[in-house]
Amino acid sequence: MKFSWKNILLWSLPILVISFFIWQGFFAPITNENNNNVANSRMTYGRFLEYIDMGWVQKVDLYENGHTAIIEAIGPELGNRIQKIRVELPVSAPELITKLKNNQIDINAHPTKNNIALWNLVGNLFFPIVLIISLTLLFRRSSNNSGGPGQAMSFGKSKALFQIEAKTGIIFDDVAGIDEAKEEFEEIVTFLKKPEYFTAVGAKIPKGVLLIGQPGTGKTLLAKAIAGEANVPFFSISGSEFVEMFVGVGASRVRDLFKKAKENAPCIVFIDEIDAVGRQRGTGIGGGNDEREQTLNQLLTEMDGFEGNTGIIVIAATNRADILDSALLRPGRFDRQVSVEIPDFKGRLAILNVHAKNKKINPKVSLSIIARRTPGFSGADLANLLNEAAILTARKHKNEITLNEIDKAIDRIIAGMEGTALIDSKSKRLIAYHEVGHAIVGTLLKEHENVQKVTLIPRGQARGLTWFTPSEDQSLISMSQIKARIMGALGGRATEEIVFGDSEITTGASNDLQQVTSMARQMVTRFGMSEIGPLSLENEDSNPFLGRGMGNINEYSDEIAIKIDKQIQEIVEECHEKTIKIIRNNRVIIDKLVDILIEKETIDGQEFRNIISQYTTIPHKG
Questions:
Q1: DSSP state letters, 505-528
Q2: Which helix (H) or strand (E) holds 434?
Q3: What is the three-class DSSP state of 533?
Q4: Do 478 and 449 share a structural domain?
Q5: Which GO terms describe its molecular function (predicted)?
Q6: Are residues 42 and 97 in the same domain?
Q7: Hey, which bits of 274-393 come out as E strands?
Q8: 388/429 same-domain check
Q9: Of 340, 368, 383, which closes a domain?
Q10: CA pair distance 535, 583, nearest whole angstrom
Q11: Is 470 left (phi over 0), alpha (psi -120 to 50) or beta?
Q12: Which of 69, 240, 483, 591 has the most CB atoms around its CB within 10 Å?
């Protein structure tokens, strides 16, 4: 803060006001009451009359129009010393003056000084003057400082960040793994730089492009690259910055934003998280939001209204396209909808290469191996992965990131922080049997994914973990693959039943059983993989405004519901029996693997398969 006379006055005036009223309320009355006389004690009016009758009172000073008396008395009870005592007198006591005169007591009346009118005048004038001066200084400070609290009178102004040449430090070469989306925007940048290539054949520049994708896939990063590549003015704003508690502010900000954009056309307007302002209107759930709907109406008008916006390209990003208003999505407002998907193997490898440029990674580390181990990771996940590996490397005081740190970083991101290894031999052996059960069933089933690692080191809430290498393509899954996954999930519970007996099974399979039930139910109700037939009985889509699961209403009869439950039970029982059979037939291998796992605490997938291959044949997995 700059210490000028204005700032000092601005902060000192409220203190002066508070001090003035405190003085008026507390100290002034006491000063007027007591004046120069200070009473050490108090006395009741009845006792005062007794003192008069006993001849102990020598002098009486009356204050506050006769309501208070300060007496000077002397007597045996007072140690035969003159003392000043305060007495509150009744409102009407005409006999008191007569009694004092009859006892020849000195009486002195002190009139109240008439300062009330003066103080009322000062108080009535002082506070308004202070208020006017403070507000004047505040608004003058507002006009000179646009970044402080001085924007009190400019609610309707757009908060968009405007740059003639956006220097984000990011270009298209820094964006990897989303080649299809990047090609779309490279075309738009070319349109802005060389529009004659397109106008020669009658093509018009797109008015809007909507980026749709899961969080972390690179939507905002792509917008930054567009800003870095295009030599045109760039406006950047978040959807939440349009809406305020004051009605009409959001619509005013939209008008102001597009007014500035028209003055600088051709230009790019980027609206991040547009779902904050572009939600469906009139949903009727939980009441309306007039301010947000007014803002959306103004946005719709500005993007493709009667006037139109030539040369303005609106780019918006969201991960909630299902809640956007249909009028916002139509051609003419957003001509293109670009999906930014989770990267595939080539995309993950390209992203890792980008983020590995500023990391000291051991030359022996193969980024392709990391890319194969991380299906389903978004660009943000991969960036976080290498950063976590770098943190672990620095914590161990190493100079280079090795595959060991990357493996631990992957485990930490997926399962949580590493815990302390178990010492109790009984619990450790039980968990080892449970995890080996998962791993051996998954290994001996042709349709199941390969085992990547089996460990007894706790992570997060799990006391032990069995990692499987997921396949690259998860979009199409056969019925045999789903049943294989059910059997793999039941492997831990089945091993506990065979080795320790039904009475010794634990709660460790609770999460496994939830997955089993969910997969079996989807087979019956969504995929048509049961005796009920090829029917879709439950819809995966739900109303986003009703909350998760609240809008799912069963569209089948109670009779069908009974059949669904029966089919789920039959699928799980069939898989459970097959899993029990695999465990019994391979009990010797399981005991051997458990001993090795307890000793080493972690077994790599290849080593696990090598041990099993010494006893039985492992099916080839294509």
A1: --GGGHHHHHHHHHHHHHHHHTS-
A2: helix 425-444
A3: coil
A4: yes
A5: ATP binding; ATP hydrolysis activity; ATP-dependent peptidase activity; metalloendopeptidase activity; zinc ion binding
A6: yes
A7: 312-318, 336-340
A8: no
A9: 340
A10: 34
A11: beta
A12: 69
Q: Show which of 392, 415, 438 is a domain's final residue.
A: 415
Predicted TM-score (pTM) of the model is: 0.67
Domain that holds residue 246: 161-340
Q: Is 215 annotated as a binding residue?
A: yes
Q: What CATH number did the domain enclosing 102 receive?
A: 3.30.720.210
Residue partners of 21: CB distance under 8 A and separation at least 6 = 123
Mean residue pLDDT across the chain = 80
Residue 517 confidence (pLDDT): 95
Measured between alpha carbons, how far is 225 from 52 in angstroms, rounded to an integer?
Answer: 98
Predicted local confidence at residue 158, as pLDDT: 59
pLDDT-based confidence at residue 138 (cuts at 50, 70, 90):
low
**Residue 393 CB contacts under 8 Å (≥ 6 apart), including other chains:** 360, 399, 400, 401, 402, 405
Do the annotations mark residue 434 as ligand-binding? yes
State both tokens at 200. Answer: 């020669």
Domain match, 439 and 366 both: no
Q: Read out DSSP for 459-492?
A: BTTBSSEEEE---S--S---HHHHHHHHHHHHHH
Tell me if 576 is assigned to a ligand binding site. no
pLDDT at 148: 43
Is 397 within any annotated ligand binding site?
no
Paired with 107 in beta bridges are: 60
> What residues are labeled active site?
435
Query: For residue 502, what are the contacts with CB-CB under 8 A and spacing of at least 6?
Result: none
